[in-house]
């Protein structure tokens, strides 16, 4: 007689959203053609629904034409009008990669199911900026302003079922 | 009679995620333990992760850890490191065992170091983060560990 004991592992569902430009201070998103998670996305908004917790991390691309600039971005909880999680920094004020938070260039937030009443709208928002001539519009296979930066940044949404 | 069971360390029926972070900017002296005082957990009643007095404790199981430590340094004439240390022995947890600390090679005023680990623990482990070469201020807005129980 044999017993096969198996566990059921609830997978972590993940979606990738693509920021491609900015509107005001919020990044515009290309949305996936199909979702793995239960979120929805439109324009600059990502909507999370109760029943799960979510881990979000967001990278962006931006070019400082003025050469000496710094940018901070963070997840913005538009439902409750507050920034949440940890900031990300990109600082080009003296030389590339030489100052200011050079390590992890993604902002993050762990949003608990208990934080979401029925739904929560979040955005990736530019929180502060120094320097001049910033540009954000990415064209596929071209990059920003015709400068061949490789690829697109991404926003990763991990859904952790409760 | 044969029993086939899931591998040791694969107890969770769901994936839990815990964030360990810092509630406010904190003055820091090189060689000290990086302050961590806040825990947020997706499944608080089930998670085997806890934090107390800057020490993170993991129960037996499988973990993926990633995060960053951001320090604005008052002295920037040297490289600095952030590493995982075993709280029981005060010894460095090794890269060969899956604990990947970080070293900043630039003599810059500030920066963040990215840490990561992927470990299978047969028994509980308590660890802390220690930084050398980095007196200044540990920044709350950029210091955290994300811990997945997988």
Choose one word for the global shape of chain B.
globular
| Count of helix runs of chain A | 0
Can you summarize the main beta sheet of chain B?
Answer: 8 strands, antiparallel
Largest protein interface, residues of each chain? A-B, 33 and 38 residues
Mind telling me the C-alpha Rg of chain B?
16 Å
Number of beta-strand segments of chain B: 15
Describe this protein's structure.
The complex is a heterodimer of chains A (162) and B (150). By secondary structure, chain A is mostly beta strands. Chain A has strands at 2-4, 13-23, 26-30, 40-42, 45-49, 52-58, 63-64, 70-77, 82-91, 107-111, 119-130, 134-135, 138-139, 143-144, 155-161. Chain A contains no helices and 15 strands. Chain A has a five-stranded antiparallel β-sheet with strand order 3-2-15-6-10, with no helix packed on it. Chain A has a five-stranded antiparallel β-sheet with strand order 4-5-11-8-9, with no helix packed on it. In chain B, a hairpin with a 2-residue loop joins strand 5 (49-52) and strand 6. In chain B, the strands form two sheets. In chain B, strands 2, 3, 4, 7, 10, 12, 14 and 15 form an eight-stranded antiparallel β-sheet that branches. The A-B interface holds A 1-12, 53, 55, 86-87, 89, 97-104, 108, 110, 112-113, 158, 160-162 and B 1-6, 10, 12-19, 21, 40, 42-43, 67-68, 70, 102, 104, 106, 108-114, 141-144, 146, 148. Strand 1 (2-4) of chain A pairs parallel with strand 1 of chain B.
State the gist of this model.
The complex is a heterodimer of chains A (162) and B (150). Chain A has 162 residues and is mostly beta strands.
Please describe the topology of this protein.
The complex is a heterodimer of chains A (162) and B (150).
Chain A: E1 2-4, E2 13-23, E3 26-30, E4 40-42, E5 45-49, E6 52-58, E7 63-64, E8 70-77, E9 82-91, E10 107-111, E11 119-130, E12 134-135, E13 138-139, E14 143-144, E15 155-161
Chain B: E1 2-4, E2 16-21, E3 26-28, E4 38-41, E5 49-52, E6 55-58, E7 61-73, E8 80-86, E9 91-92, E10 99-100, E11 102-104, E12 110-121, E13 125-132, E14 136-138, E15 144-149
Antiparallel strand pairs in B: 2-4, 2-15, 3-14, 5-6, 6-13, 7-12, 7-14, 7-15, 8-9, 8-11, 8-13, 10-12
